[in-house]
Amino acid sequence: MSTMRFTGVNVWVHDQDEALAFYTQRLGMEVREDVTVPELGNFRWLTVGPPLQPDVAFVLMEPSAPGLDPETRGKLEEIMAKGFAGGLFFETDDCRAQYEALRARGVEFQEEPTQRPYGVDRGFRDPSGNSLRLVQRA
After folding, report:
1. How is domain 8-137 classified at the CATH fold level?
2. Is the pLDDT of residue 80 over 90?
């Protein structure tokens, strides 16, 4: 029997260059792939991932991707504008220290890390409005 393993997830973004700068310069991700496909109208396949997890990638995808009809694209852009196009969770061994490091790199948080029943947690957003959470498990 063949096996499957998780390798990545799509993250809808308004602007790939802006998202690339945020995920690499501010969050410390590394570029996995950055390929332009002329046969698909110069579609750009752009992925980034955490340096300590080389098997995991986030596909930074614009709503203009091939295969989306105009109605679907419009609805997706509407959901993105509300900040509900998806979310990413990042685990850390020291939420407060990671919070300070990210703030120093220009990541904007609305509140400081908060103790929760499951650990220390703090949320923030990327430039496209995607919800991201930083969690230190209890």
Report:
1. 2,3-Dihydroxybiphenyl 1,2-Dioxygenase; domain 1 (3.10.180)
2. no
